[in-house]
Amino acid sequence: MVLFTNSENGLSIAQAVEAEALGGNQPAFTWIKYDRYDSEAIRFARAVKENGAGPAIEEFRPALLRGDISEGFLNSAGYRLMGQDKLTDAIRIFQLNVALYPKSWNVYDSLGEAYMKHGDKDLAIQNYQKSLELNPKNSGALQALGELNSK
Fold first, then answer.
1. Helix axes 105-118, 121-134, angle to 10 degrees
2. Rounded Cα distance, 136 and 151, in Å
3. pLDDT number for residue 8
4. Who is most buried in 6, 41, 43, 150, counting CB within 10 A?
């Protein structure tokens, strides 16, 4: 079977297409670890897009607390919002990621970047410093702190 997709979420339907084409549940796509179109994570992303971060977080709080929506997925959702200049919602998502994964240097780095883009210098510095505390080799945080401290 060959499957071509033309979107960043194309693999979200791969298992359903595979089951329809080959019949039954096949294990070929399970190793990819890609969220299905009907997963909690994809539904959360859709809710963020349609209703904003706050209402989506409230609606999906149980799934978030269970870990059904991964740190990486939340980080990607935050960056998508930043790319759309929805900085307030991006910050909410990154704050959530920090609350859920407080030992991850990457979540603080992302929140620092969002604060920096939003113009919140002190909060950006605070989060980049926490990222560096957790990962002293984070060169991106070092560079960002250099820029922030020179302003």
1. 160
2. 23
3. 60
4. 41
State the residue for tokens 């209703």.
Answer: 51
CB distance 42 to 9 below 8 Å: yes
| Torsion angles phi and psi, residue 138, rounded to 5 | -75, 90
* Dist. CA 119–CA 27, nearest whole Å: 47
**How confident is the model at residue 13, as a pLDDT?**
62
pLDDT digits (tens, 9 = 90+) for 12-52: 666 667 777 777 766 766 656 566 767 899 899 999 999 99
Query: By the 8 A CB rule, do 92 and 115 touch?
Result: no
pTM of the model: 0.81
Identify the residue whose tokens are 């149980």: 62
Q: Give me the residue label for tokens 């959530």.
A: 96
143 is written with which tokens?
A: 């560079």
pLDDT score at 12: 65
Specify the DSSP element, H or E, that contains 42. helix 40-51
Sign for the CA dihedral angle at 46, 55, 35, 131 comes to positive
On the CB side of 79, how many CA atoms lie within 13 Å of its CA? 10
* pLDDT at residue 10 tops 80: no
